[in-house]
Design goal:
The protein is mainly beta. The chain is built from two helices and 15 strands.
Length: 222
């Protein structure tokens, strides 16, 4: 009887340990890392014209405050780029728009040097960010792979609310979730307009003349 109890106790302990280990594996096995430290722009590069003139004083277009990257919305410095090329990855980011905002997330782009061909939307992809909640999805609206593909749904939230994005790129497969809705799940090699798009490049966020904030930028390289 004592042996049976001992075996039962051992089984319970092992079950609890396995459950704990599984929970730890679930958390740690994902290997997501914060690529924005919440304090400054270490690891990020402003492509072209970082500052603007305001009352004869140079002001940065991209700043960090309260654990957020903040875009002033002033002209120039159109892209803030994570300074490492990525190929296969999962990236999570949250953003909050000002009213009438127009912005974007660059995927697998190149270093922007000024010419049109170096824009993320041409060299790679731009995931459109727009204050158009409630409108029908289009190839130029929120969640679109700008100018190429409309999203399955316009899942964006109104200006002033936080939006959550997950971008997964693995070879030619691109899967994007916005606010818990899958808005893209494609094989770019099977689509005429995207079949020659690169399979690696830079991630960036866009200044398109409106205030926008970003936080919780996390990356898992696959």
């Amino acid at each position: 009887m004592n042996i049976a109890r001992m075996l039962l106790s051992t089984l319970v302990v092992l079950t609890l340990l396995m459950g704990t280990a599984a929970a730890e594996d679930k958390d740690n096995g994902e290997k997501f890392v914060d690529i924005f430290n919440g304090k400054d722009l270490s690891g990020w590069v402003v492509d072209r014209h970082h500052k603007y003139d305001q009352w004869a004083k140079d002001k940065p277009r991209w700043t960090v405050a309260d654990g957020m990257i903040r875009c002033s919305g002033k002209g120039g410095a159109p892209f803030l780029r994570y300074d490492k090329e990525l190929s296969d990855f999962v990236l999570r980011i949250e953003y909050r728009m000002a009213p009438k905002c127009n912005s974007g997330l660059g995927i697998r782009g190149v270093v922007y040097t000024g010419p049109r061909k170096t824009r993320p939307s041409i060299a790679g992809y731009e995931l459109q960010v727009l204050d158009d909640s409630g409108k029908n999805p289009t190839a130029h609206g929120s969640g679109s792979l700008y100018r190429y593909l409309a999203p399955k749904a316009n899942a964006t939230r109104p200006a002033g609310e936080w939006n959550e994005v997950e971008i997964e790129c693995f070879g030619p497969r691109i899967r994007i979730t916005l606010n818990d809705q899958i808005i893209h799940d494609i094989d770019q090699s099977q689509i005429e307009a995207t079949k020659n798009k690169p399979l690696k490049g830079y991630f960036s966020v866009q200044n398109h003349g409106h205030v926008i904030e970003f936080r919780n930028v996390r990356l898992k390289e696959l």
